[in-house]
Amino acid sequence: MGSLQSDALDNVAATAGAAYPVSPLDPEEFRRQGHMVIDFLADYYHDVHKYPVRSQVEPGYLRKRLPDTAPNGPEPLEAILGDITHDIIPGITHWMSPSYFAYFPSSGSTAGFLGEMLSTGINVVGFNWMSSPAATELENIVMDWLAKMLKLPSCFHFSGGGGGVLQGTTCEGILCSLVAARDRALDRLGRDQIARLVVYGSDQTHCSIQKAAQIAGIHPDNFRAVPTTRADAFSLNPSALRAAIDKDIARGLVPLFLCATVGTTSSTAIDPLEGLCKVAKDYEHMWVHVDAAYAGAACICPEFRHAIDGVEMADSFSFNAHKWFLTNLDCCCMWVREPGALVRALSTNPEYLRNKGTESKKVVDYKDWQVALSRRFRSMKLWLVLRSYGVANLRNFLRGHVKMAKDFEDHVSADPRFEVVVPRTFAMVCFRLLSPPGLVAEGSTERANELNRRLLEAVNASGRAYVTHAVVGGVYMIRFAVGATLTEVRHVAEAWRVVKEHATDLLASCRSSDSAGPLVDRA
Amino acid sequence: MGSLQSDALDNVAATAGAAYPVSPLDPEEFRRQGHMVIDFLADYYHDVHKYPVRSQVEPGYLRKRLPDTAPNGPEPLEAILGDITHDIIPGITHWMSPSYFAYFPSSGSTAGFLGEMLSTGINVVGFNWMSSPAATELENIVMDWLAKMLKLPSCFHFSGGGGGVLQGTTCEGILCSLVAARDRALDRLGRDQIARLVVYGSDQTHCSIQKAAQIAGIHPDNFRAVPTTRADAFSLNPSALRAAIDKDIARGLVPLFLCATVGTTSSTAIDPLEGLCKVAKDYEHMWVHVDAAYAGAACICPEFRHAIDGVEMADSFSFNAHKWFLTNLDCCCMWVREPGALVRALSTNPEYLRNKGTESKKVVDYKDWQVALSRRFRSMKLWLVLRSYGVANLRNFLRGHVKMAKDFEDHVSADPRFEVVVPRTFAMVCFRLLSPPGLVAEGSTERANELNRRLLEAVNASGRAYVTHAVVGGVYMIRFAVGATLTEVRHVAEAWRVVKEHATDLLASCRSSDSAGPLVDRA
Prior knowledge:
Chains A, B: Belongs to the group II decarboxylase family. Chains A, B: Pfam families: Pyridoxal_deC. The structure is a homodimer. Chain A is α/β, with parallel strands linked by helices. Chain A folds into three domains: 22-91, dopa decarboxylase, N-terminal domain; 125-376, Aspartate Aminotransferase, domain 2; 391-520, Alpha-Beta Complex (Aspartate Aminotransferase, domain 1). In chain A, 41% of the residues lie in helices and 11% in strands. Chain A has helices at residues 10-16, 27-47, 77-88, 110-122, 133-149, 170-189, 207-215, 238-250, 273-281, 321-324, 339-346, 356-360, 379-414, 445-462, 489-512; strands spanning 163-167, 197-202, 223-226, 254-261, 287-291, 316-320, 332-336, 418-420, 428-433, 468-472, 475-481. In chain A, β2 (197-202), α7 (207-215) and β3 form a beta-alpha-beta unit. In chain A, α6 packs across α7 (207-215). Chain A is globular, with a radius of gyration of 26 Å. The two termini of chain A are 40 Å apart. At the A-B interface, α1, α2, α3, α4 and α5 of A face α1, α2, α3, α4 and α5 of B.
């Protein structure tokens, strides 16, 4: 790798006015290099099962391998791909591995990838209709297609006065909803009343809602994480919500926004939308957002659609197609009942963007539905996913993951050393190794938790599977989320073998050492 | 196209449990389809000069062509690519066309595209170091490379206690800076003081700063667009800033944030950073962000670096690699002096993300430097751009655009019917057709503006070039921004011919009709 040692050559180049040697977008060179990268990635998918799923590198590994400065001259793609193999791949945690069961999946697919390629290749900046009409109109159409697949009520369709928009992530979507709700409330209450507004979720709600509230200037004391209980399977209880709201009202505060979750991150709990929306309706100006980031995808299957019953009373709804819907990162699908509320809070109309399309009032200018001005042609990838696979296959694909999770759950349930901690709802199993009698004092939650921390680390350090954890109700549990696109039945079976082997080893090593001592150390 | 007519088949599929027919990520099918799309895009770049640059479709054109619902069964890629050619391409405004001179460029390249492919293909979700160490570490390294290329002071390098981050867009970057500044101020003043905070820009500052202020809950009355003048070439005058600040302080308000711009959207004006930062320093807690979204790229050339002199006194700096740096959308490069301020305002630490990497305190968790939790592996494309072209070629590429803009400026200056409205600084020429004596009353700005509105519309309706407009100091001018990757000298020459021809026609048609009437109608 050459590197930029000095600027000695700068003036030479500047005065010589040397022509750019090869056009950076020469079609034939693009073709040649594009084919190389396709082959590189096809080989990556072919081999990805061989790599340790969780990267095994130490902090700072890459600085030791790469130069300190950018090269002064061009380097061939062959060299760069070689460096990716040798230097980058070891630092990758392989979300595309068939043995990836961590967090929630990032389920890319051929169609999702090709859609991103087409979007990136055409490279339009679709901030308003005029800047590339097809980008806006395809998004309108695809969001209506998806709304029908999810049986969302007509108030969320464009024809019903609502509409859908592709955000990058749920965080952005929730932030936009919250800002719309905030400004709708402040229009009524007065702009100086921002410190009275309160945002509600549960102690299981994703951290993005608290972050969105922080960004939107909601007073930090005014975010309520209403406690959930094991009796409610860690879902938000409508009575608990009402009690929290009433308490705030009594203190002179104003309930602004509720984020209800369908498929929480820790345990895929389902907040009861109907009951929660009924509570919110009693405080007429509250905005209810339904965050179905993970589980929304499953709701295209009739047998799971009940999870979002009640959404017809909500103000906005979102799910991430990049999680469990074969669409490569990033793609958050959001629908709103009242697009005007978003537009009032987020629109800007500088002179240099004035155009006939906007003035016709017949078009959507998506810049006013999101944080940023610039936006990618994301609907292209969703369109490719929907058409390349079709609704029936998409449903079967999701069902296949649920079936695999059920298989894993059966394995766990059949092994008396383990327990399923919370009931499985979709394709994630939350389980833990039980403390063997005599080894860990009964009732010692912390020691039982430590046992599972060690099991998790042992599994992940093996590189043969990757799982992550959560703590609900004080119980540390291992989350086993099926959803990576390449995962097949045999990978789930292998993961269970890995878990069992490490559990056996761990229990043996605990028995052979002091039964109390080692288990209290955090690894 | 098949369509989803009913759910009659749902239960059949559900009970049959039909296996997914082809894996959505089968490596060989990925390879076959990937090669097809590469060829499709290579052909697109080969032919893009033939298409009307600005799409000529009418609102609603696409709904008439596409079905109302997603297909139930899969459709072949061949059919989808055919539909892109027939239905999508006509609705595309071709930002990749060599005759695209509108807004600012969206300068994709082979390397930028390939980097996005690799990022999308590997498809990691790099929210923290642990989730894929290479994604974070490569971003650290590449941002330091770029900081050196821009000769940013060491306070913005990781080694100097600062650091760089890739945001999607400038809007997101500014929002993060502003929220960090806001919370730093409110920690000092008290959380209930948000309504006293004031944000400053000029009347030429990009609308994203006002939008960021809105989102962050800054009182809508507290955004100051300080007026600029032609005498200052529409840059923000430090004395005018000081006067605005002092007036606010006298009213009991608190100056919070200044956004200074290097290369404004309307006319590429350069705010004098040194003078402005000195003013801000007198109000010690003010945060100064330097928005060089467009012009920052040019600052890798020694002859343009002076445009950001004074940045060493700023708190944050950003430019868009997706504008004029061969990096496909989206990629905003931002550096901050005090990452801790971002982290304090934007961090979240849920249990399910706890990990050894974070606890080691030796790593960056970029989720705490941005709005969203999820993030793409954007550094991959920047790394490919820097290595594939090298610093010397990148500079020459930018210089080539500046030279072409200079050529266009020379053409305009040599034609007495036209004038260059503001001095050219980078690769954009702001010009207008002068009102011919006798045709439009002297001093009638609105009629002169109308003449240029018509000229712009005629040029764009021809499909042979695409330009957009701005209004500064009441003067409507046509912006001619060179920067599309495929643009060569001959395309600039052709664009000038198109402008001249339409000007000739327009002046002739004005002369042959009522000299007063038609020119006051807005087209």
